[in-house]
Write a structure and sequence with these properties.
18% strand, 39% helix, Rossmann fold, alpha/beta, Nucleotide-binding universal stress UspA family protein, elongated, UspA, 294 residues, Universal_stress_UspA, 2 domains, eleven-stranded mixed sheet
């Protein structure tokens, strides 16, 4: 029977130490959220002009299964998490995109950003991180559970309505980790009045989303500077950095996006939350007492 993915965190592995770090992150996240985990390895069959022998195909498939077995053996699986594996003879981009349509979360190691680029200037990052049906987490090789989970969840907001889904994920993550949310509003320039107006929009967004998380501390921090530099600095002391997709669709928009630019160098897990066209957050009410602007 084909497994279902509605309650399964999908993590891409390739036998590298970095992908094992991503798998450990996926197991930790699944344990907190009451989900299962599937380790996924895929690689297309070589394209050659001569027929491949049956033994070659068998050896190719066995190598993939051996890789997955080795990954499972290297992991400490929490008792409450069911772990399974999947090997497919296809492009990693296609498989991860397909599974993201029903999975609640897709996880990859940070080194896999190069894997993205080999398939056409972000052609994996675009469908998975930009057009994905679920949030995508990029885990750096230096991630360690004990060190990172004591830190706040940082979410970058810009006052646009599309940020609601991004903020909602950040509040969920902070609730599971037992930490606070820092809503970071970077202001590269503009007049004082424009800065104040944008900051008010961010406060209103946070108040609307926090109706579902009244006990999760949250605050807005407005900073001046280039967004990319600000985010990389903030990530150094964050448990997770949460970003939304570009405001417009298309590969060109993704290539120019902040998420794409910081993906390869961020020092904490980076979550790219997809645009949810039918995402609903309760209407605004009074600002929560825990909300403060600094």
């Amino acid at each position: 029977m084909e497994p279902t993915y509605e309650r399964t965190v999908v993590v891409g592995v390739d036998g590298s130490p970095d992908s094992l770090v991503a798998a450990r992150y996926a197991l930790r996240t699944a344990a907190l959220r009451g989900l299962d985990v599937e380790l996924v390895y895929s690689y297309p069959m070589p394209l050659v002009d001569v027929p491949l022998s049956g033994s070659f195909v068998d050896d190719f498939e066995q190598a993939g299964r051996d890789l997955l077995t080795g990954a499972v053996d290297a992991l400490d699986v929490p008792p409450a998490v069911a772990l399974r594996t999947r090997f497919a003879e296809t492009l990693p981009a296609l498989l991860m995109q397909e599974l993201s349509r029903s999975a609640p979360l897709v996880v990859v190691g940070q080194h896999a950003t190069a894997w993205f680029d080999r398939l056409g200037r972000g052609s994996v990052a675009s469908p998975v991180a930009h057009h994905s049906g679920c949030p995508v987490v990029v885990v750096p090789p230096a991630w360690r559970q004990v060190e990172h989970e004591r830190r706040p969840v940082v979410v970058a907001l810009d006052g646009e309505a599309v940020s609601l889904a991004t903020l909602d994920f950040a509040l969920d993550e902070a609730t599971f980790l037992g930490t606070e949310v820092v809503a970071l509003h970077s202001v590269p320039g503009g007049t004082h009045g424009q800065t104040e107006s944008a900051a008010r929009n961010v406060v209103e967004l946070l108040a609307r989303a926090q109706v579902r998380h009244p006990s999760t501390p949250a605050r807005v921090v407005t900073v001046r500077g280039v967004t990319q530099r600000v985010l990389l600095t903030a990530a150094e002391s964050a448990a997770v950095l949460v970003l939304g997709p570009p405001h417009t669709d298309g590969l060109a928009a993704w290539t120019r996006s902040v998420a794409r630019r910081v993906m390869g160098g961020v020092g904490c897990p980076l979550v790219v939350v997809p645009r949810r066209r039918h995402h609903h957050v309760p209407p605004a009410s009074a600002l929560p007492e825990l909300l403060r602007v600094s």
